[in-house]
Structures are given as structure tokens and as C-alpha cells.
Fold:
Amino acid sequence: MNTMPTTSTRVAAQDLTAFCLEVMRISGLSEEDSVLSTEVLVTADTWGTFTHGTRQLRGLMKDVRLGAVDPEASPTVTGEGSSWALVDAHAAMPPASAYRAMQIAIEKARETGVAYVGVRNGGHFAAAGFYAYLAARADMIGVSTGNVDPGVTVTGSRGRVLGTNPLAYAVPAGVEYPLLFDIATSAVAATKLYAAVAEGRPIPDTWLVDEDGLPTTNGSIYPELGALMPMAGHKGYGLALFVEVLSAVLSGAAITKDVHSWVMHPDKPGNQGYGFLVIAVEQIMPLAIFKERMDGLIREIRSAPKAKGVDRIYLPGEIEQEKRDIAMIEGIVLPPDVVVSLRGLAEDVGLDADTLFKSEGEGQ
Structure:
């Protein structure tokens, strides 16, 4: 058995892509599902969003083995109009299902200006920001939401009421990077809490409450006990509730406690919901003018007076896009927990992980 690394590891994006494709092929997924899902996960890693990148693949493949994800299923459109559609994912590979649903929203918005697509019977779809980013790549404004099993308290409660319910948007620009904003509506994404606990790092007392609803720094109690705090108190609560409406109530997916946790119940389909909104800029104003206005807005914010000790003001997504530019040339520097997960995944499916890490080696 390979020794698990304790340092970061540099891998080429194309090598990581090939590894993920092979894992999914062995696991019985179709070529198209594998290609779409790999793009989602590897792109997140190039952004430096490692909690929602290829680290997620081991859990997803476990879901395949246990039956929570059906590798042979394909999403179907169950209802639609000129500017909307409802999709049943049938517990198919979640990132691929979400990718296709956003593509439907983009195509409908291209014809009607604005479109909504809701998905039911989905699962953990990784980085919400990727799907909004698909719209921005098509020169449209994209919004991506998803509901998750309850793990977050709400104002006045001491238990779990809503999920971490991610919310993301992306907006195209001209010569500037597109805006890309992706947040959990909890104070922290659950995967970041799990990563901190796994690495033995302390957590702040603003992430989690115990069974009495009081702040705690003991991250190991979750998810069996306690609940994550909502982002910014009642403001995060309100946003999470709106995400639940767009993702689940409107799509026909499971709502709050009826969603199955992929951590606590990995053998049960999650029946999570997704909501995608797209605005086709060109239907409203000439695209060139919009991009010029966006560039102006971005530069105005970037040139705002800086606080003492601050060298640069970043726009949402700018750090991630700069990391991607570097990663695509120099390779992705995977943190230790991702390397551990990928090595474990290779062992799960009978691959030699050294084939992934051969080019650069560990400890870089």
C-alpha cells in the first residue's frame, strides 16, 4: 500500500483529467457523464476550490457502488415551456446532470432572454459556481443554486433546519475576468469543516453550534450532533430559504429533512434539487456595450481607496481565475487531503495512483 503524503503534490491538469476519466470508466459511467463530471471537478481544482473538486470523486464513486447514484441513468425533461424546464435526474451522476440542466437553461435563454431550469432527484453536484460559470462562458448571466440535507441551524433554533444550500452567480465581462461568486449560505461549507477535522486543525467558534445551540470549537461532533451556523445570522438564513425555494420547492425535489445525506446515508439517493437561472444579455442590450460597462464597473471597484496594509482589491472570482491560469501551465498543487482522497480512490477501483503522480512527484 502507498504511504499517504503529508505535503502538497503538483499534477498536470491533463493527467488529473485522464485519471478521473479512467476511474469513472471502471466504475461503469458513460463516456459523456465521465467527461462532463471530470470537467466540473478538475476545473474546481484549477480554481483552488479543492473542497469541491476531485476530492469529491471518491464519495461519488462510493455512491455508485452503494446504489445512491445510478451510473446507467440519464436525466429526462418532465415538463417545459419556452423559458423554463423541469428535469428528473433519476439519480444519475450529479455533476453531469447539473451540467446538462444548465445547458438547457442557456439554450432557452438564448431564445427567450431569461430561463429557469429546476432539477429533482439529484445528488451532490460539487461546485455550484461551475454551472453559473457555464452561462458566463456563453456571454450570459448565470445563477446556480442547490439544496442540501439539513445541517444548518436558523435564527432562534438549536437544531438542524436547512442545508448549506449553495448560491452562485457568474457575469461575463470584456477584457476583464468574468465575475464568479460561489458561497455556502452557512457560515462555512460542511466539506471545509470535515477537512479541518481530518487534518486536526481547530475551528473558530463562528462555524458550529452544539446540541444546545451554543457556539463550539469541537468540530468532531458534526454531523452526528450540533449544526452549522448560517452565514451572517438571519441574512444567511433568508438566503438559504430562498435557495430551498428555487432548488426544491419549485423543482419538485425533496425539501429539507426529506433530503438524504450523502455522508450519513450513502446508500440512499439524495433527491436533492437544483435551480438554474440564465439571463441572455444580448436580448437586453448589445453584448459589446454590456461588456464595456462591466469592465468599467470592475475597474472602478478595483481602483477604490485601499485599507491600510492592503495592496490590491479583488473582484469575486478573480483570485480563482488567476490560479487557473497558472495551474493550466504549471500544474495543480493539490493539498494533502486531496492527495489522500485520490490515492484512496485509486485503491478503491484497482488503479495504481503513482500513474497520476508520476510526472512531478510529491512534496512540491
User: Anything to note?
Assistant: The first helix runs from residue 13 to 26. Confidence is low (pLDDT under 50) at residues 360-364.
